[in-house]
Amino acid sequence: MGRIGMxxxxxxxxxxxxxxxxxxxxxxxxxxxxxxxxRSYDRGSPGEMHRQIIEGIDAALEEAGYEQSSLRGxxxxxxxxxxxxxxxxxxxxxxxxxxxxxxxxxxxxxxxxPVVADVDTVAATWGEYWAGAGKTCDRFxxxxxxxxxxxxxxxxxxxxxxxxxxFPEFGHxxxxxxxxxxxxxxxxxxxAMVCGGGIARHGREAVQSGKETILRExxxxxPGTVTSPMVFxxxxxxxxVANAILERVAVLLGRLCAxxxxxxxxxxIVIVGGLADQCDWVLDTINRVMRESCWLLFKELTACEVxxxxxxxxxxxxxxxxxxxxxxxxxxxxxxEVAK
Length: 340
Ligand SMILES: [Zn+2]
Hints:
This protein has 340 residues and is an alpha/beta fold. It has eleven helices and twelve strands. It has a five-stranded mixed sheet, with helices on both faces. Strands 10-9-8-11-12 form a five-stranded mixed sheet, sandwiched between helices.
């Protein structure tokens, strides 16, 4: 018999993969973090990935004072499309190295608990549903704004997970005439215009076209090295060109939000993701453009506000935990149905 840990009662573990880091979170029954940490990871073979995940899980349990036997479920979110039944990675721009391999199966066998995995946008939406905006609102949309622009939807208290392992998508809508190539293969997608890489490209083009901007100094005269943090820094320092770039980004996002209101009439649109902490630069313009572009709003037939997430970088891991808890609850309900 194992030693009784400091925390004998059960816990759930959430794992949230970003581009270069992976976050581990532990909670009991409430969305209150008992433990949270961020580690770097290396892309490798599926076996190497599982070794790193197991190392992270074991370290998280030990540091939080839990026995392995008290683990009740594991939720994982990844920047890739996942087969929700088998946990196999189907496709993702940076996750081809895992294509076809199940992320969940080796973990379910090792820890003997339910393990679920889903794409990061769905997990972020479950996170807001459980711990963020969704606590007070059962009809809302999520925009994940960072290295890409993803989306999530909660309609009447249900997180929308579409058939075929798909999910809502707004980021690949085309709302401008620009021909910028998008990672999806199409051109002019909003995703290409407003994500971190898009903001950097606006900055690069401004320097290349000879505009008077401190971005030139920030990039050391090398337009190819302009990054989105440089654009935000320049805006902070009062640079008019950088402010105009962020205004343009906000206008495009505001038009998208108007389209979302026209389509699903959410009460709120919550911005999450790596750039969510930069929302102060864009929220006022997004809300103004959304209202001006949507007759349902300016005729006051419905109401909607765009807000920034309050969950920081914990939302994905919390969402993955919420999802595995729901899966367990669902299978218990089904067992009771069968027993009747
Ligand atoms: Zn696209």
